[in-house]
Amino acid sequence: MLTLGIDTSTDNLGLALIENDIIKAEYNLSLKRKHSEKLLPLMVDIFANIGIRPQAIDAAVVAIGPGSFTGLRIGITTAKILARIFDIPVKGISTLEIMAAGVESEYILPLLDARRERVYYSFYKLNYKENDYLPKTLLTAAGARISELSNILRNYKDKEITVIGEKRHEVIDHLKTNKFLVNQSAAEKNIPRAAVLARLGRDYIDQGQKDDIYELKPTYLKQPQAEIDWQKKYGDN
Amino acid sequence: MKFEDKIKNETEDIYILALESSCDETAASVNKNGLEVLSNVVSSQVDLHKKFGGVVPEIASRKHLELLLPVIDQALEEAGIRFEDLDAVASTYGPGLVGGLLVTLTAAKTISFSLNIPLIGVNHIAGHIYANFIENPDIEKPLICLTISGGHTDLLYFENLRGYKILGRTLDDAAGEAFDKISRFLELGYPGGPAVEKAARSGDKTAIDFPRADLGDSYNFSFSGLKTSVMNYVNNEEQRGNEIDKNDLSASFQEAVVDSLASNIIKAVKEYDVKSVVLSGGVAANQRLREVISERIEKYNLDLYYPKLELCTDNAAMIGVAAYYQYLEHDFAPLSISADPALKL
Ligand SMILES: [Zn+2]
Protein backbone atom coordinates (compact mmCIF):
# COMPACT_ATOMS: atom_id res chain seq x y z
CA MET A 1 0.00 0.00 0.00
CA LEU A 2 1.36 3.39 -1.07
CA THR A 3 0.49 6.05 1.49
CA LEU A 4 1.02 9.79 1.12
CA GLY A 5 1.37 11.85 4.30
CA ILE A 6 0.85 15.62 4.24
CA ASP A 7 1.50 17.96 7.16
CA THR A 8 1.07 21.73 6.90
CA SER A 9 -0.09 22.23 10.48
CA THR A 10 3.04 23.89 11.87
CA ASP A 11 6.10 25.68 10.47
CA ASN A 12 7.28 22.23 9.41
CA LEU A 13 6.09 21.25 5.95
CA GLY A 14 5.99 17.47 6.04
CA LEU A 15 5.51 15.25 3.03
CA ALA A 16 6.16 11.52 2.95
CA LEU A 17 5.47 8.58 0.74
CA ILE A 18 5.66 5.14 2.30
CA GLU A 19 5.10 1.77 0.72
CA ASN A 20 4.32 -0.80 3.38
CA ASP A 21 7.26 -0.39 5.76
CA ILE A 22 9.56 1.37 3.36
CA ILE A 23 10.00 5.12 3.35
CA LYS A 24 10.08 6.02 -0.35
CA ALA A 25 10.46 9.74 0.35
CA GLU A 26 10.25 12.08 3.30
CA TYR A 27 10.49 15.85 3.41
CA ASN A 28 10.49 17.85 6.61
CA LEU A 29 11.09 21.46 5.71
CA SER A 30 11.15 24.24 8.23
CA LEU A 31 9.21 26.94 6.39
CA LYS A 32 7.35 29.83 7.83
CA ARG A 33 4.02 30.39 6.08
CA LYS A 34 5.24 29.22 2.70
CA HIS A 35 3.14 26.06 2.63
CA SER A 36 0.80 27.33 -0.06
CA GLU A 37 3.64 28.02 -2.49
CA LYS A 38 5.69 24.93 -1.66
CA LEU A 39 3.32 22.02 -1.10
CA LEU A 40 2.26 21.13 -4.64
CA PRO A 41 5.67 21.77 -6.27
CA LEU A 42 7.17 19.46 -3.63
CA MET A 43 4.59 16.80 -4.39
CA VAL A 44 5.48 17.00 -8.08
CA ASP A 45 9.10 16.69 -7.07
CA ILE A 46 8.54 13.62 -4.87
CA PHE A 47 6.52 11.74 -7.46
CA ALA A 48 8.99 12.60 -10.22
CA ASN A 49 11.97 11.50 -8.12
CA ILE A 50 10.37 8.22 -7.12
CA GLY A 51 9.14 7.69 -10.65
CA ILE A 52 5.50 7.02 -9.87
CA ARG A 53 2.31 8.71 -10.94
CA PRO A 54 -0.08 10.37 -8.48
CA GLN A 55 -2.83 7.86 -9.23
CA ALA A 56 -0.63 5.12 -7.75
CA ILE A 57 -1.29 6.27 -4.19
CA ASP A 58 -3.63 4.11 -2.13
CA ALA A 59 -4.27 6.42 0.82
CA ALA A 60 -3.93 10.07 1.80
CA VAL A 61 -3.08 10.93 5.40
CA VAL A 62 -3.04 14.45 6.74
CA ALA A 63 -2.16 16.25 9.97
CA ILE A 64 -5.23 17.93 11.47
CA GLY A 65 -3.55 20.07 14.14
CA PRO A 66 -3.60 21.75 16.52
CA GLY A 67 -1.79 24.31 14.42
CA SER A 68 -2.21 27.26 12.10
CA PHE A 69 -5.78 27.17 10.76
CA THR A 70 -4.79 28.53 7.37
CA GLY A 71 -1.89 26.09 7.15
CA LEU A 72 -4.10 23.18 8.18
CA ARG A 73 -6.68 23.97 5.53
CA ILE A 74 -4.00 23.80 2.83
CA GLY A 75 -3.02 20.24 3.72
CA ILE A 76 -6.56 19.05 4.42
CA THR A 77 -7.87 20.49 1.15
CA THR A 78 -5.12 18.69 -0.73
CA ALA A 79 -5.88 15.38 1.01
CA LYS A 80 -9.62 15.71 0.38
CA ILE A 81 -9.16 16.38 -3.33
CA LEU A 82 -6.72 13.50 -3.76
CA ALA A 83 -9.11 11.18 -1.94
CA ARG A 84 -12.04 12.38 -4.03
CA ILE A 85 -10.32 12.13 -7.41
CA PHE A 86 -8.55 8.81 -6.86
CA ASP A 87 -11.31 7.36 -4.70
CA ILE A 88 -8.90 6.40 -1.92
CA PRO A 89 -9.33 6.49 1.86
CA VAL A 90 -8.28 9.55 3.83
CA LYS A 91 -7.28 9.74 7.48
CA GLY A 92 -6.63 12.80 9.63
CA ILE A 93 -4.09 12.50 12.43
CA SER A 94 -3.52 14.85 15.35
CA THR A 95 -0.24 16.71 15.00
CA LEU A 96 0.46 15.93 18.66
CA GLU A 97 -0.10 12.24 18.08
CA ILE A 98 2.40 12.27 15.19
CA MET A 99 4.97 13.68 17.58
CA ALA A 100 4.15 11.11 20.27
CA ALA A 101 4.34 8.21 17.82
CA GLY A 102 7.86 9.24 16.89
CA VAL A 103 9.46 8.40 20.26
CA GLU A 104 9.84 5.15 22.14
CA SER A 105 8.65 5.96 25.63
CA GLU A 106 5.66 4.84 27.63
CA TYR A 107 4.23 8.20 28.70
CA ILE A 108 4.60 11.05 26.27
CA LEU A 109 3.66 14.71 26.52
CA PRO A 110 3.94 16.38 23.08
CA LEU A 111 3.67 20.16 22.96
CA LEU A 112 3.00 22.89 20.44
CA ASP A 113 3.50 26.58 21.08
CA ALA A 114 0.19 28.37 21.68
CA ARG A 115 1.93 31.76 22.18
CA ARG A 116 2.57 33.69 25.34
CA GLU A 117 2.87 31.32 28.30
CA ARG A 118 0.58 28.74 26.74
CA VAL A 119 0.95 25.40 24.97
CA TYR A 120 -1.27 22.93 23.16
CA TYR A 121 -0.72 19.51 24.65
CA SER A 122 -2.05 16.02 24.59
CA PHE A 123 -0.94 13.07 26.72
CA TYR A 124 -0.32 9.58 25.35
CA LYS A 125 0.68 6.10 26.42
CA LEU A 126 2.67 4.05 23.95
CA ASN A 127 2.91 0.29 24.55
CA TYR A 128 5.99 0.00 22.40
CA LYS A 129 7.33 -2.84 24.53
CA GLU A 130 4.47 -4.94 23.17
CA ASN A 131 5.28 -3.74 19.64
CA ASP A 132 2.20 -1.54 19.59
CA TYR A 133 3.14 1.74 17.94
CA LEU A 134 -0.25 3.45 17.98
CA PRO A 135 -0.37 5.95 20.86
CA LYS A 136 -3.29 5.62 23.28
CA THR A 137 -4.77 8.98 24.21
CA LEU A 138 -4.84 9.62 27.97
CA LEU A 139 -5.64 13.33 27.74
CA THR A 140 -7.14 14.80 24.57
CA ALA A 141 -5.68 17.86 22.89
CA ALA A 142 -6.25 21.17 24.63
CA GLY A 143 -4.59 24.48 25.30
CA ALA A 144 -3.24 25.37 28.76
CA ARG A 145 -0.94 27.72 30.57
CA ILE A 146 2.40 26.07 31.21
CA SER A 147 1.91 26.66 34.93
CA GLU A 148 -1.29 24.57 34.88
CA LEU A 149 0.35 21.42 33.52
CA SER A 150 1.47 20.00 36.88
CA ASN A 151 -2.14 20.01 38.01
CA ILE A 152 -3.45 18.62 34.71
CA LEU A 153 -0.95 15.74 34.95
CA ARG A 154 -1.28 15.17 38.69
CA ASN A 155 -2.45 11.54 38.28
CA TYR A 156 0.77 10.66 36.48
CA LYS A 157 3.24 12.00 39.03
CA ASP A 158 4.72 8.56 39.63
CA LYS A 159 5.30 7.90 35.90
CA GLU A 160 8.30 8.78 33.80
CA ILE A 161 7.06 11.35 31.27
CA THR A 162 8.87 12.16 28.03
CA VAL A 163 8.30 15.78 27.13
CA ILE A 164 8.77 16.71 23.47
CA GLY A 165 8.04 19.55 21.10
CA GLU A 166 7.90 23.32 21.29
CA LYS A 167 8.45 25.07 24.64
CA ARG A 168 9.58 21.74 26.14
CA HIS A 169 12.35 23.38 28.16
CA GLU A 170 9.92 25.67 29.95
CA VAL A 171 7.51 22.80 30.54
CA ILE A 172 10.26 20.48 31.80
CA ASP A 173 11.41 23.17 34.25
CA HIS A 174 7.88 23.58 35.48
CA LEU A 175 7.27 19.84 35.90
CA LYS A 176 10.63 19.25 37.58
CA THR A 177 9.93 22.02 40.03
CA ASN A 178 6.74 20.18 40.86
CA LYS A 179 8.60 16.91 41.45
CA PHE A 180 7.66 15.10 38.24
CA LEU A 181 9.91 12.48 36.65
CA VAL A 182 10.66 13.86 33.21
CA ASN A 183 12.72 12.75 30.22
CA GLN A 184 13.75 14.41 27.00
CA SER A 185 14.33 13.02 23.59
CA ALA A 186 16.85 13.62 20.83
CA ALA A 187 16.48 16.78 18.76
CA GLU A 188 14.88 15.09 15.72
CA LYS A 189 12.12 13.57 17.88
CA ASN A 190 10.70 16.98 18.67
CA ILE A 191 8.91 17.68 15.42
CA PRO A 192 5.96 15.91 13.82
CA ARG A 193 7.74 13.81 11.20
CA ALA A 194 6.04 13.17 7.89
CA ALA A 195 7.00 9.49 7.70
CA VAL A 196 5.50 8.88 11.15
CA LEU A 197 2.30 10.58 10.01
CA ALA A 198 2.08 8.38 6.93
CA ARG A 199 2.74 5.23 8.96
CA LEU A 200 0.11 6.11 11.59
CA GLY A 201 -2.48 6.82 8.93
CA ARG A 202 -1.73 3.58 7.13
CA ASP A 203 -2.07 1.62 10.41
CA TYR A 204 -5.41 3.23 11.22
CA ILE A 205 -6.72 2.69 7.71
CA ASP A 206 -5.58 -0.96 7.93
CA GLN A 207 -7.73 -1.23 11.04
CA GLY A 208 -10.67 0.15 9.12
CA GLN A 209 -10.51 3.60 10.73
CA LYS A 210 -10.70 6.03 7.85
CA ASP A 211 -12.33 9.47 7.85
CA ASP A 212 -15.28 10.75 5.83
CA ILE A 213 -13.72 13.01 3.20
CA TYR A 214 -16.67 15.40 3.46
CA GLU A 215 -16.41 15.72 7.24
CA LEU A 216 -12.64 15.98 7.61
CA LYS A 217 -11.58 19.29 9.13
CA PRO A 218 -8.86 20.84 11.29
CA THR A 219 -8.86 20.52 15.07
CA TYR A 220 -10.28 23.92 15.93
CA LEU A 221 -9.32 24.37 19.59
CA LYS A 222 -10.28 28.01 19.42
CA GLN A 223 -13.49 29.62 18.19
CA PRO A 224 -13.13 32.52 15.75
CA GLN A 225 -12.44 35.72 17.71
CA ALA A 226 -15.54 37.41 16.24
CA GLU A 227 -17.69 34.58 17.64
CA ILE A 228 -16.10 34.85 21.10
CA ASP A 229 -16.67 38.62 21.11
CA TRP A 230 -20.23 38.23 19.91
CA GLN A 231 -21.07 35.69 22.61
CA LYS A 232 -19.54 37.92 25.26
CA LYS A 233 -21.82 40.70 24.10
CA TYR A 234 -25.06 38.88 23.36
CA GLY A 235 -24.87 35.55 25.23
CA ASP A 236 -24.83 32.01 23.98
CA ASN A 237 -26.93 31.86 20.85
CA MET B 1 3.13 13.14 -20.85
CA LYS B 2 3.24 16.79 -19.87
CA PHE B 3 -0.02 18.73 -19.96
CA GLU B 4 1.54 21.11 -22.49
CA ASP B 5 1.24 18.34 -25.07
CA LYS B 6 -2.51 18.06 -24.47
CA ILE B 7 -3.41 21.72 -24.88
CA LYS B 8 -6.26 22.14 -27.30
CA ASN B 9 -6.87 24.96 -29.75
CA GLU B 10 -9.93 27.12 -30.25
CA THR B 11 -11.58 24.70 -32.68
CA GLU B 12 -11.84 21.87 -30.13
CA ASP B 13 -14.23 21.58 -27.20
CA ILE B 14 -12.62 22.79 -24.00
CA TYR B 15 -14.12 21.95 -20.59
CA ILE B 16 -13.00 23.95 -17.57
CA LEU B 17 -13.84 23.43 -13.89
CA ALA B 18 -13.72 26.80 -12.11
CA LEU B 19 -13.69 27.45 -8.36
CA GLU B 20 -14.26 30.59 -6.31
CA SER B 21 -13.95 31.30 -2.55
CA SER B 22 -12.62 34.84 -2.27
CA CYS B 23 -15.34 36.16 0.04
CA ASP B 24 -18.44 34.50 1.46
CA GLU B 25 -19.63 32.33 -1.43
CA THR B 26 -18.20 28.90 -2.14
CA ALA B 27 -18.72 28.22 -5.83
CA ALA B 28 -17.89 25.75 -8.58
CA SER B 29 -18.85 25.61 -12.23
CA VAL B 30 -18.12 23.75 -15.42
CA ASN B 31 -18.13 25.51 -18.76
CA LYS B 32 -17.66 24.38 -22.32
CA ASN B 33 -15.73 26.70 -24.62
CA GLY B 34 -16.01 29.52 -22.15
CA LEU B 35 -19.41 31.00 -22.67
CA GLU B 36 -21.43 27.81 -22.48
CA VAL B 37 -22.08 27.37 -18.75
CA LEU B 38 -22.93 23.74 -18.05
CA SER B 39 -23.30 24.23 -14.30
CA ASN B 40 -22.92 27.08 -11.84
CA VAL B 41 -23.22 26.11 -8.18
CA VAL B 42 -23.02 28.82 -5.51
CA SER B 43 -23.32 28.11 -1.82
CA SER B 44 -23.75 31.37 0.02
CA GLN B 45 -22.69 31.92 3.61
CA VAL B 46 -24.33 35.31 3.88
CA ASP B 47 -26.62 34.19 6.72
CA LEU B 48 -23.64 33.04 8.77
CA HIS B 49 -22.06 36.48 8.70
CA LYS B 50 -25.16 38.60 9.04
CA LYS B 51 -25.04 38.88 12.81
CA PHE B 52 -21.48 40.25 12.68
CA GLY B 53 -22.37 43.00 10.17
CA GLY B 54 -19.68 41.85 7.76
CA VAL B 55 -17.76 38.81 6.57
CA VAL B 56 -15.63 37.24 9.32
CA PRO B 57 -12.59 35.80 7.52
CA GLU B 58 -11.97 32.82 9.81
CA ILE B 59 -15.63 31.79 9.79
CA ALA B 60 -15.71 32.12 6.00
CA SER B 61 -12.58 30.01 5.59
CA ARG B 62 -13.99 27.24 7.79
CA LYS B 63 -17.16 27.16 5.75
CA HIS B 64 -15.30 27.16 2.43
CA LEU B 65 -13.44 24.01 3.47
CA GLU B 66 -16.70 22.36 4.46
CA LEU B 67 -18.52 23.28 1.25
CA LEU B 68 -15.63 22.65 -1.14
CA LEU B 69 -16.31 19.04 -2.10
CA PRO B 70 -20.11 19.30 -2.12
CA VAL B 71 -20.07 22.23 -4.56
CA ILE B 72 -17.51 20.54 -6.81
CA ASP B 73 -19.52 17.32 -6.82
CA GLN B 74 -22.70 19.17 -7.67
CA ALA B 75 -21.05 21.22 -10.42
CA LEU B 76 -19.66 18.10 -12.10
CA GLU B 77 -22.90 16.20 -11.71
CA GLU B 78 -25.12 18.96 -13.09
CA ALA B 79 -22.74 19.38 -16.02
CA GLY B 80 -22.61 15.65 -16.63
CA ILE B 81 -18.82 15.83 -16.60
CA ARG B 82 -16.28 13.58 -14.88
CA PHE B 83 -12.91 14.74 -13.58
CA GLU B 84 -11.25 12.90 -16.49
CA ASP B 85 -13.16 15.01 -19.03
CA LEU B 86 -11.67 18.28 -17.80
CA ASP B 87 -9.16 20.18 -19.93
CA ALA B 88 -8.19 22.69 -17.26
CA VAL B 89 -9.01 23.78 -13.73
CA ALA B 90 -9.28 27.41 -12.61
CA SER B 91 -9.53 29.24 -9.33
CA THR B 92 -9.68 32.82 -8.21
CA TYR B 93 -6.34 33.76 -6.62
CA GLY B 94 -7.18 37.33 -5.61
CA PRO B 95 -8.27 39.82 -4.58
CA GLY B 96 -10.15 38.70 -1.50
CA LEU B 97 -9.68 37.14 1.90
CA VAL B 98 -6.48 35.15 1.88
CA GLY B 99 -7.70 32.26 4.05
CA GLY B 100 -10.70 31.74 1.83
CA LEU B 101 -8.82 32.14 -1.44
CA LEU B 102 -6.36 29.45 -0.36
CA VAL B 103 -9.11 26.83 -0.08
CA THR B 104 -10.15 26.73 -3.73
CA LEU B 105 -6.70 27.71 -4.98
CA THR B 106 -5.18 24.72 -3.15
CA ALA B 107 -8.00 22.52 -4.42
CA ALA B 108 -7.41 23.67 -8.00
CA LYS B 109 -3.68 23.05 -7.69
CA THR B 110 -4.31 19.54 -6.40
CA ILE B 111 -6.75 18.84 -9.22
CA SER B 112 -4.21 20.14 -11.75
CA PHE B 113 -1.54 17.90 -10.21
CA SER B 114 -3.78 14.84 -9.97
CA LEU B 115 -5.24 15.02 -13.47
CA ASN B 116 -2.19 16.51 -15.17
CA ILE B 117 -4.17 19.43 -16.61
CA PRO B 118 -3.28 23.13 -16.69
CA LEU B 119 -4.00 25.38 -13.71
CA ILE B 120 -5.43 28.82 -14.43
CA GLY B 121 -5.29 31.58 -11.83
CA VAL B 122 -8.06 34.11 -12.35
CA ASN B 123 -8.39 37.65 -11.04
CA HIS B 124 -11.77 37.90 -9.33
CA ILE B 125 -12.43 41.33 -10.82
CA ALA B 126 -11.72 40.07 -14.31
CA GLY B 127 -14.25 37.34 -13.52
CA HIS B 128 -16.96 39.89 -12.76
CA ILE B 129 -16.26 41.61 -16.06
CA TYR B 130 -16.37 38.39 -18.06
CA ALA B 131 -19.67 37.51 -16.40
CA ASN B 132 -21.31 39.88 -18.88
CA PHE B 133 -20.18 37.94 -21.89
CA ILE B 134 -21.92 34.78 -20.68
CA GLU B 135 -25.31 36.33 -21.17
CA ASN B 136 -24.36 38.51 -24.10
CA PRO B 137 -21.94 36.52 -26.23
CA ASP B 138 -22.47 38.81 -29.24
CA ILE B 139 -21.75 42.03 -27.41
CA GLU B 140 -20.21 44.53 -29.84
CA LYS B 141 -16.64 45.65 -29.36
CA PRO B 142 -14.84 47.88 -28.62
CA LEU B 143 -16.53 48.57 -25.32
CA ILE B 144 -16.27 50.52 -22.08
CA CYS B 145 -16.70 48.57 -18.89
CA LEU B 146 -17.34 49.92 -15.41
CA THR B 147 -16.62 47.37 -12.72
CA ILE B 148 -17.98 48.30 -9.32
CA SER B 149 -18.00 46.24 -6.15
CA GLY B 150 -17.15 46.35 -2.47
CA GLY B 151 -13.46 46.37 -3.28
CA HIS B 152 -13.25 47.98 -6.70
CA THR B 153 -14.31 50.81 -8.93
CA ASP B 154 -12.51 50.55 -12.26
CA LEU B 155 -13.26 51.94 -15.69
CA LEU B 156 -11.87 49.79 -18.51
CA TYR B 157 -11.59 49.91 -22.27
CA PHE B 158 -11.78 46.63 -24.23
CA GLU B 159 -10.62 46.51 -27.82
CA ASN B 160 -11.58 42.79 -27.85
CA LEU B 161 -12.21 40.11 -25.22
CA ARG B 162 -8.59 39.08 -24.80
CA GLY B 163 -7.29 42.29 -23.30
CA TYR B 164 -8.23 45.59 -21.69
CA LYS B 165 -6.83 48.99 -20.74
CA ILE B 166 -7.54 50.63 -17.38
CA LEU B 167 -8.82 54.18 -17.85
CA GLY B 168 -9.49 55.08 -14.23
CA ARG B 169 -10.04 53.74 -10.73
CA THR B 170 -11.09 54.91 -7.30
CA LEU B 171 -8.62 56.98 -5.34
CA ASP B 172 -10.09 55.98 -1.98
CA ASP B 173 -13.22 53.98 -1.18
CA ALA B 174 -14.76 51.63 -3.70
CA ALA B 175 -18.38 52.39 -4.61
CA GLY B 176 -19.64 49.30 -2.78
CA GLU B 177 -17.55 50.17 0.24
CA ALA B 178 -19.19 53.60 0.32
CA PHE B 179 -22.62 51.94 0.29
CA ASP B 180 -21.57 49.58 3.10
CA LYS B 181 -20.21 52.39 5.25
CA ILE B 182 -23.30 54.52 4.82
CA SER B 183 -25.54 51.55 5.51
CA ARG B 184 -23.67 50.81 8.72
CA PHE B 185 -23.71 54.47 9.68
CA LEU B 186 -27.48 54.70 9.17
CA GLU B 187 -28.00 51.20 10.63
CA LEU B 188 -29.82 50.02 7.53
CA GLY B 189 -28.42 46.50 7.58
CA TYR B 190 -26.03 44.22 5.75
CA PRO B 191 -25.14 43.83 2.91
CA GLY B 192 -25.08 47.60 2.53
CA GLY B 193 -25.74 48.07 -1.19
CA PRO B 194 -29.21 46.49 -1.33
CA ALA B 195 -30.10 48.01 2.07
CA VAL B 196 -29.35 51.57 0.95
CA GLU B 197 -31.04 50.99 -2.40
CA LYS B 198 -34.17 49.72 -0.66
CA ALA B 199 -34.35 52.76 1.62
CA ALA B 200 -33.65 55.06 -1.34
CA ARG B 201 -36.66 53.73 -3.20
CA SER B 202 -39.02 55.46 -0.76
CA GLY B 203 -36.90 58.61 -0.54
CA ASP B 204 -36.51 61.87 -2.44
CA LYS B 205 -33.23 61.90 -4.36
CA THR B 206 -33.24 65.69 -4.60
CA ALA B 207 -33.75 66.21 -0.87
CA ILE B 208 -30.08 66.86 -0.09
CA ASP B 209 -27.52 68.10 -2.60
CA PHE B 210 -24.34 66.20 -1.78
CA PRO B 211 -21.11 67.29 -3.51
CA ARG B 212 -19.55 65.27 -6.36
CA ALA B 213 -15.79 64.88 -6.36
CA ASP B 214 -14.11 66.99 -9.04
CA LEU B 215 -11.11 65.05 -10.33
CA GLY B 216 -10.46 67.17 -13.40
CA ASP B 217 -9.63 65.43 -16.64
CA SER B 218 -8.99 62.00 -15.16
CA TYR B 219 -11.29 59.01 -15.25
CA ASN B 220 -10.72 58.39 -11.55
CA PHE B 221 -13.32 58.24 -8.80
CA SER B 222 -13.44 59.34 -5.17
CA PHE B 223 -16.13 58.62 -2.60
CA SER B 224 -14.58 59.42 0.77
CA GLY B 225 -15.56 63.10 0.55
CA LEU B 226 -19.15 62.11 -0.10
CA LYS B 227 -19.12 59.76 2.87
CA THR B 228 -17.84 62.59 5.09
CA SER B 229 -20.55 64.91 3.76
CA VAL B 230 -23.25 62.41 4.69
CA MET B 231 -21.86 62.01 8.19
CA ASN B 232 -21.52 65.75 8.66
CA TYR B 233 -25.05 66.29 7.45
CA VAL B 234 -26.42 63.76 9.95
CA ASN B 235 -24.40 65.19 12.82
CA ASN B 236 -25.49 68.75 12.01
CA GLU B 237 -29.14 67.81 11.77
CA GLU B 238 -28.98 65.87 15.02
CA GLN B 239 -27.40 68.85 16.77
CA ARG B 240 -30.23 71.00 15.54
CA GLY B 241 -32.64 68.46 16.93
CA ASN B 242 -34.01 67.60 13.50
CA GLU B 243 -35.26 64.15 12.66
CA ILE B 244 -33.27 62.42 9.90
CA ASP B 245 -35.24 60.95 7.02
CA LYS B 246 -33.10 57.91 6.25
CA ASN B 247 -34.93 57.30 2.99
CA ASP B 248 -34.27 60.82 1.65
CA LEU B 249 -30.70 60.59 2.84
CA SER B 250 -30.17 57.20 1.16
CA ALA B 251 -31.73 58.41 -2.09
CA SER B 252 -29.62 61.58 -2.17
CA PHE B 253 -26.45 59.69 -1.33
CA GLN B 254 -27.16 57.04 -3.95
CA GLU B 255 -27.85 59.73 -6.53
CA ALA B 256 -24.46 61.32 -5.88
CA VAL B 257 -22.66 57.99 -6.30
CA VAL B 258 -24.60 57.11 -9.44
CA ASP B 259 -23.99 60.55 -10.90
CA SER B 260 -20.22 60.40 -10.56
CA LEU B 261 -20.12 56.88 -12.01
CA ALA B 262 -22.30 57.84 -14.95
CA SER B 263 -20.36 61.04 -15.67
CA ASN B 264 -17.09 59.18 -16.14
CA ILE B 265 -18.74 56.67 -18.43
CA ILE B 266 -20.07 59.46 -20.63
CA LYS B 267 -16.65 61.08 -20.70
CA ALA B 268 -15.09 57.79 -21.88
CA VAL B 269 -17.83 57.18 -24.42
CA LYS B 270 -17.08 60.55 -25.97
CA GLU B 271 -13.35 59.97 -26.18
CA TYR B 272 -13.29 56.33 -27.31
CA ASP B 273 -15.35 55.22 -30.26
CA VAL B 274 -17.13 52.34 -28.51
CA LYS B 275 -20.14 50.26 -29.46
CA SER B 276 -21.22 49.07 -26.03
CA VAL B 277 -21.13 49.93 -22.34
CA VAL B 278 -20.88 47.16 -19.78
CA LEU B 279 -21.49 47.26 -16.05
CA SER B 280 -20.08 44.60 -13.79
CA GLY B 281 -19.55 43.84 -10.11
CA GLY B 282 -21.93 43.67 -7.16
CA VAL B 283 -22.94 47.34 -7.37
CA ALA B 284 -24.03 46.81 -11.00
CA ALA B 285 -27.15 45.27 -9.44
CA ASN B 286 -28.23 48.76 -8.39
CA GLN B 287 -31.38 49.59 -10.37
CA ARG B 288 -30.99 53.36 -10.14
CA LEU B 289 -27.48 53.13 -11.56
CA ARG B 290 -28.73 51.12 -14.53
CA GLU B 291 -31.55 53.60 -15.11
CA VAL B 292 -29.35 56.71 -15.07
CA ILE B 293 -26.69 55.25 -17.33
CA SER B 294 -29.28 54.02 -19.86
CA GLU B 295 -30.80 57.50 -19.99
CA ARG B 296 -27.49 59.24 -20.47
CA ILE B 297 -26.02 56.98 -23.14
CA GLU B 298 -29.20 56.91 -25.18
CA LYS B 299 -28.18 59.71 -27.51
CA TYR B 300 -24.89 57.98 -28.35
CA ASN B 301 -26.78 55.00 -29.71
CA LEU B 302 -24.96 52.46 -27.56
CA ASP B 303 -26.09 49.22 -26.02
CA LEU B 304 -25.90 48.91 -22.25
CA TYR B 305 -25.18 45.51 -20.76
CA TYR B 306 -25.23 44.39 -17.19
CA PRO B 307 -25.12 40.90 -15.73
CA LYS B 308 -28.20 39.03 -14.61
CA LEU B 309 -28.73 39.46 -10.90
CA GLU B 310 -27.42 35.99 -10.13
CA LEU B 311 -24.20 36.75 -11.95
CA CYS B 312 -23.68 40.03 -10.08
CA THR B 313 -22.97 38.13 -6.92
CA ASP B 314 -19.85 36.04 -6.73
CA ASN B 315 -19.97 32.83 -8.71
CA ALA B 316 -17.62 30.44 -10.42
CA ALA B 317 -19.02 30.61 -13.95
CA MET B 318 -17.56 34.09 -14.38
CA ILE B 319 -14.16 32.77 -13.25
CA GLY B 320 -14.51 29.95 -15.77
CA VAL B 321 -15.19 32.30 -18.67
CA ALA B 322 -12.18 34.49 -17.86
CA ALA B 323 -10.20 31.26 -17.51
CA TYR B 324 -11.23 30.15 -20.98
CA TYR B 325 -9.73 33.27 -22.59
CA GLN B 326 -6.61 32.76 -20.52
CA TYR B 327 -6.51 29.14 -21.71
CA LEU B 328 -6.56 30.31 -25.33
CA GLU B 329 -3.64 32.60 -24.52
CA HIS B 330 -1.83 29.74 -22.71
CA ASP B 331 -1.85 31.93 -19.62
CA PHE B 332 -1.34 29.14 -17.07
CA ALA B 333 -0.25 29.39 -13.46
CA PRO B 334 2.59 27.44 -11.87
CA LEU B 335 1.76 25.22 -8.88
CA SER B 336 3.75 27.66 -6.75
CA ILE B 337 1.17 30.40 -7.27
CA SER B 338 -0.20 31.77 -4.01
CA ALA B 339 -3.22 33.82 -3.11
CA ASP B 340 -2.86 37.58 -3.51
CA PRO B 341 -5.43 39.32 -1.31
CA ALA B 342 -4.68 42.72 -2.86
CA LEU B 343 -4.45 41.60 -6.49
CA LYS B 344 -5.17 44.41 -8.95
CA LEU B 345 -6.53 44.24 -12.45
ZN1 LIG C 1 -17.07 39.73 -6.32
Automatic annotation (TrEMBL), chain A:
GO terms classed as biological process: proteolysis; tRNA threonylcarbamoyladenosine modification
UniProt KW keywords: Hydrolase, Protease
Q: Does the keyword Protease apply?
A: yes
Q: Which GO terms describe its molecular function?
A: peptidase activity
**Residue ranges occupied by any Gcp-like domain in the UniProt entry:** 32-153
Quote the cellular component terms of the Gene Ontology held in the record: cytosol
Q: Kindly give the CDD domains that the UniProt entry links to this protein.
A: ASKHA_NBD_TsaB
Q: What is this protein called?
A: Glycoprotease family protein
UniProtKB/TrEMBL annotation, chain B:
What residues does substrate bind to? 147-151, 180, 193, 197, 286
GO terms (BP aspect) = tRNA threonylcarbamoyladenosine modification
Zinc-finger keyword on record? no
Give the top-level enzyme category: transferase
Please name the CDD domains in this protein's record. Answer: ASKHA_NBD_TsaD_bac
Q: Enumerate the UniProt keywords alphabetically.
A: Acyltransferase, Cytoplasm, Iron, Metal-binding, Transferase, tRNA processing
What is the annotated localization of this protein?
A: Cytoplasm
- Main localization is cytoplasm
Q: Which cofactor does it need?
A: Fe(2+)
Function of the protein: Required for the formation of a threonylcarbamoyl group on adenosine at position 37 (t(6)A37) in tRNAs that read codons beginning with adenine. Is involved in the transfer of the threonylcarbamoyl moiety of threonylcarbamoyl-AMP (TC-AMP) to the N6 group of A37, together with TsaE and TsaB. TsaD likely plays a direct catalytic role in this reaction.
Protein's name according to its UniProt entry: tRNA N6-adenosine threonylcarbamoyltransferase
Q: Which organism does this record belong to?
A: Halanaerobium congolense
Point out the gene that encodes the protein. tsaD
